[in-house]
Write a structure and sequence with these properties.
Order of helices and strands: EEEHEHHEHHEH
Helix content: 25-40%
Number of helices: 6
Strand content: 15-25%
Number of strands: 6
Distance between the termini: 44 Å
Radius of gyration: 16 Å
Strand order of the largest sheet: 3-2-1-4
C-alpha cells in the first residue's frame, strides 16, 4: 500500500580511481547518477525538485549493487546495467530515455536518430531537452548522443566526462572483446 508520505532518497558517493560521483535510489531503483566531480549540492537540488519533502539518507549498503555495476562499467567489464531504475518523467522523456538505452555500447547516435527512433522526427530540439533532463548519467547512456555532424555536444556532466565515457567505450569496443 502506497502512502502519501515522502519516501526517503538513499544516496552514496562512488569513489573509483579517477571517478567520483553521487548515486541515489528510491525503494524502486536507481534514480540518480551525478556528474563527475560535482558536489553533493547537485544531488540535493535534483532531489528537492524531483522528490520534494523526501529526506536524503546516506546508505552505502543499499547503493552497493548500483555502485558495483558502475564500477564494472568504468573498468570496461560491463556494457549494460541490469538493476532496476526509478525513472520519472513525462511520457516523451521516458520514450527518449528508453531509446538511449537501445544505443549499443561503443556506438553513438545523433539527436535526429533518437527523434526518428521514437517516431517524432520533427522533435529534435525536444529530444535534446529530454536528454538534458536525464537523471541517470552513464546508466541511461546519453553520452552516446552526438551532433549530426559528429561533434560532441552538451552533456549535464560536462564535455570532459562525456569524452572520457566515449573514450572508455571506444577502447573497450575496439580492444579484445570479452
Amino acid at each position: 500500500m502506497k502512502t502519501n508520505q515522502p519516501q526517503p532518497i538513499y544516496w552514496s558517493r562512488l569513489n573509483d580511481g579517477q571517478w567520483t560521483l553521487y548515486l541515489a535510489a528510491t525503494g524502486d531503483g536507481l534514480a540518480y547518477v551525478g556528474s563527475f566531480g560535482r558536489p553533493f549540492e547537485e544531488l540535493a537540488v535534483w532531489a528537492g525538485r524531483r522528490f520534494p519533502g523526501s529526506p536524503l539518507m546516506q546508505d552505502e549498503q543499499r547503493l552497493a549493487p548500483y555502485a558495483a555495476q558502475l564500477t564494472e562499467y568504468l573498468a570496461a567489464k560491463r556494457e549494460r546495467f541490469t538493476l532496476p531504475f526509478d525513472l520519472r518523467g513525462t511520457a516523451f522523456q521516458l520514450a527518449v530515455w528508453e531509446a538511449l538505452c537501445d544505443i549499443p555500447f561503443g556506438q553513438t547516435r545523433s539527436y535526429t536518430d533518437i527523434a526518428e527512433a521514437i517516431r517524432k522526427p520533427s522533435s529534435v530540439r525536444a529530444v535534446g531537452t529530454a536528454i538534458g533532463a536525464n537523471p541517470l548519467l552513464i546508466t541511461v547512456p546519453c553520452h552516446r548522443v552526438i551532433g549530426k555532424n559528429g561533434a560532441l555536444t552538451g552533456y549535464r556532466g560536462g564535455l570532459e566526462m562525456k569524452t572520457r565515457l566515449l573514450d572508455l567505450e571506444h577502447a573497450a569496443f575496439t580492444g579484445s572483446r570479452r
